[in-house]
C-alpha cells in the first residue's frame, strides 16, 4: 500500500470519511497526509465546520437582504 497520497485524494478521503465510507488503510493514508500538509489540514477543519452547521442551514432559507443592503452591494460591485 502506498502511504503518501495527493491533496486531491486527501480531500476525497475527507468527504468519504464524513459519509462513513473510508477503509482503515485509507484512513491511515489520510492521517499521514494531514500530518504533513497544512493546506489539507485547513480543508479538513473547514469541512468539519460545514458538516456541524449543515443542519442549521434551513433556519436561513427565507433570509433576504434589505433594499439598503442590496444597494450597498450593488454600489460596491460597480466601484470595484
Q: Regarding quaternary structure, how should these chains be classified?
A: single chain
What is the CA-CA span between the terminal residues? 50 Å
Specify Rg, calculated over alpha carbons.
Answer: 19 Å
Number of separate helices: 4
How is the main sheet built? Answer: none
Q: What string gives the helices and strands in order?
A: HHHH
Strand tally, please?
0
Helix/strand/pairing class, anyone?
Answer: mainly alpha
- The chain-level mean pLDDT equals 90
Outline the low-pLDDT stretches: none
Question: Could you tell me the strand content as a percent range?
Answer: under 5%
Helical proportion?
Answer: 55-70%
Shape: elongated
Q: Which key terms come to mind for this protein?
A:
4 helices; mainly alpha; 80 residues; single chain
Amino acid at each position: 500500500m502506498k502511504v503518501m497520497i495527493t491533496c486531491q485524494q486527501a480531500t476525497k478521503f475527507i468527504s468519504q470519511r464524513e459519509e462513513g465510507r473510508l477503509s482503515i488503510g485509507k484512513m491511515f493514508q489520510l492521517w499521514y497526509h494531514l500530518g504533513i500538509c497544512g493546506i489539507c489540514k485547513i480543508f479538513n477543519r473547514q469541512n468539519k465546520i460545514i458538516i456541524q452547521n449543515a443542519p442549521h442551514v434551513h433556519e436561513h432559507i427565507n433570509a433576504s437582504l434589505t433594499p439598503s443592503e442590496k444597494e450597498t452591494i450593488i454600489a460596491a460591485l460597480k466601484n470595484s
